[in-house]
Structure formats: C-alpha cells, structure tokens
Fold this sequence. Notes:
Strand content: 35-45%
Low-confidence stretches: none
Distance between the termini: 18 Å
Amino acid sequence: RRIHVGNLPEKVRRSEVEQHFQEFGNIEFISLKHKDTESFCFIGFDNAKAADQAIHEMDRATIYGNQIKVSLSRPPNSSH
Length: 80
C-alpha cells in the first residue's frame, strides 16, 4: 500500500525519510521529489497495516521543523 508524505523539508534525503518510517513495516520503495522550497514523497509498504499505522502515527508529526502531512496515496487518474 502506498502513502503520500507532504510538506517535507526542502533538503531532506531518502535515508532520512526511511529512518522515520521504517519502524512501521517493510518499505518496498520511496520516491522522493523536490519542488521549490519543499519536498514530498511516496512510500510503498508491503502491507496495508503498516501503511495505516504510518498514517496514524506520522500525520502532523514534525520533521526538521516542518509539520508533515501523511495520507493514503490515490492511484493516478483516480476519481475523487
């Protein structure tokens, strides 16, 4: 299951994201994107329970001074 993590600090590295989220379960991938003054990423967990726990525990957490937003990622072109 894939989650979206928004409002990450601009210079955050993949390894730092992994450190914050690996406690919730096996991470299959991290896709980190940098845009202007902030970054965001998609994290794929190998099961839904890990993703749900990461969302529950990390949404609105602070990483390097930024309050992050963590939510379930929708597939591209999904209806709302």
